[in-house]
User: What shape does this take?
Amino acid sequence: MPPFTPRNLNSITDRNKRHINHWSSTMFHFCPSCASPKIRFEDHTLFRCPDCGFVYYHNTAAATGCIITTDEGILFLVRAKEPSQGKLDLPGGFVNPAEGAVEGLRRECREEIGWDPGPDFSFFASFPNTYPFKDIVYNTCDLFFTLSAPGLRKEDLRLDPEEIAGIRFVPPVQVNMDALAFDSTRRAVQAFIEREAQPQLV
Ligand SMILES: [Zn+2]
Assistant: This one.
């Protein structure tokens, strides 16, 4: 099945631009190179210092999430820390330098739930997100994958208590979108549930 393509392909709206500018304007008050207070944020992407020429691109970070389907429902993780502590998230996280997306997702699964899902993920969809952490707002490009693991049980998983406060297996029809931690996750899970509800072409 081909990956999901959202109908609204505008990746950055005027509202998003305003938010990015607002958050980013609080990141640096002085140039990290020459300490000039004139450093400014330009084009929704970069910091430039007019005094010394310092340029820093606040690039989008790659992140992953996986919709793992089991006999008991979709596997969700309860976040143990901010942002969105106590809300539900998918296994996944930031892709590290020198890592591919699938490699990063496997590592996150091993770290978060003590389970190696193997490499057989299917790419599903991508949505943008923002991730505020310790006074910095990271803009992420979230890559969502799917994986079928029918026999996966709670007993197969070893949770990292610093990251994960618990797990839930939720049947697709019972997913409460308001309980999900991030906008991108809501969009991906919603799209997945809608796709699964479609009659399958053979
Ligand atoms: Zn400077």
Observations:
- Strands lie at 40-42, 46-48, 55-57, 61-70, 73-79, 88-89, 122-133, 136-148, 164-170.
